[in-house]
């Protein structure tokens, strides 16, 4: 009886492995490969030849200084560019991006940024003083040897009196540096459970766009970083300036003096679209054309929306002239990874920026016809907040469930998503694991048949061919 039960369990185990092996191998391989591309550095990270003026902006000692930190391994594109443009539109601060070293660093999705200053250059510019504000985005996890310089630098700035703004999962950077111990703080809703376990000395708060704990402000998910930056502007420059900044960047959800209401979020059944996209769904190759004057939030709305969490496309930054860096609306330097000659190999070509839609449409359309590539698309040609336009483009070209999931992970207000139009649930990609499981089972069955045929032909009467097989006891008696 026990032998029969063991035999049944063994066969069931073999069937289960046969069904799961192929989907797991394919799914994990595709997911791992895509995740690596999110912060994949450029082939050459050195400072480009000064074909244009790459010097950082001038310093006005009469203004407060705000720095946005990026690590040598990069940072989240929305966490960096959302607060950066929010500070920049005030025109009332010295604003720099800083990194341990001044070399190209990848923002999410492959947008290569040249930081304004290294840590040493910032210290020289400020004559050893700390900046007034340090904004800290999410950074890719790295070895302690690479995070230690960032943590040590942050601790020094906080100790010297800098107001620290932790954007989204940038709170993890602050927690690892010990800057949140004993404080109230928040972070991305999806990661709060993990952060609570890893950093129990922090009083983590949920369902809030930001937490102001005096010398440290932390925010929820990506777009809540704009609210956190506006809170900093309130404290530095007053509510009137903050309201003007919110209007300038198109953020209609600003609430003076306190964080705007934010419903609590949890991972639900519909959110499994992320797993489908990450593992089994084909992804379009999307070129993003960098042009001078594109808004920082406009750039973030494409590189951030399609890549992280949604896993809905592979993006590559292209230049009108691949050899030349470009400057964003408020002076950030980005370096393309290729030129427009790559167009024929792409599925789509997006051109971020309302300004680009006016200035470059004729030239880009003509170039696309010449090269035989996809027709350029201008997602910001219509009026509206950049992320709203990007999410609507995602709903139309990918599907509505992916757009809703990405809005949830960005903490984009649901009120802004009414009337999304596009395809529904991708059932074909969802069923692929079942198909792969069936193929795995059929392959295992075929292998079993081949193995059995290769064994000696033992019939029910105990013979192999014409030779009789006798039990061992009978052979011994003979």
Task: Give short descriptive properties of this protein.
478 residues, alpha/beta, Rossmann fold, 7-stranded mixed beta sheet, 42% helix, disordered C terminus, INH-QAR, Class_I_gatase-like, membrane, transmembrane helix
Describe the structure.
- The chain is an alpha/beta fold and 478 residues long.
- It folds into 2 domains: 65-249, Class I glutamine amidotransferase (GATase) domain (Rossmann fold); 268-425, Rossmann fold (3-Layer(aba) Sandwich).
- It has 16 helices and 20 strands.
- The chain has helices at residues 2-37, 77-88, 119-125, 144-159, 170-176, 192-198, 224-237, 239-249, 273-279, 296-303, 354-359, 361-371, 386-397, 400-410, 427-454, 472-477, and strands at residues 65-69, 94-99, 105-107, 111-114, 117-118, 133-136, 163-166, 184-185, 203-204, 210-212, 216-219, 285-290, 314-319, 326-327, 333-335, 338-339, 348-350, 376-377, 463-464, 467-468.
- It has a 7-stranded mixed sheet with strand order 5-2-1-6-7-11-10, sandwiched between helices.
- Helix 6 links the parallel strand 8 (184-185) and strand 9.
- Helix 2 (77-88) runs antiparallel to helix 10 (296-303), helix 10 packs parallel to helix 13 (386-397) and helix 13 (386-397) packs antiparallel against helix 14.
- The longest helix has 36 residues, at 2-37.
Give a summary of the structure in a few sentences:
By secondary structure, the chain is of the alpha/beta class. Helices cover 42% and strands 14% of the residues.
List the helices and strands and how they pair.
Blueprint: H1 2-37, E1 65-69, H2 77-88, E2 94-99, E3 105-107, E4 111-114, E5 117-118, H3 119-125, E6 133-136, H4 144-159, E7 163-166, H5 170-176, E8 184-185, H6 192-198, E9 203-204, E10 210-212, E11 216-219, H7 224-237, H8 239-249, H9 273-279, E12 285-290, H10 296-303, E13 314-319, E14 326-327, E15 333-335, E16 338-339, E17 348-350, H11 354-359, H12 361-371, E18 376-377, H13 386-397, H14 400-410, H15 427-454, E19 463-464, E20 467-468, H16 472-477
Helix pairs in contact: 1-15, 2-7, 2-10, 7-8, 10-13, 13-14
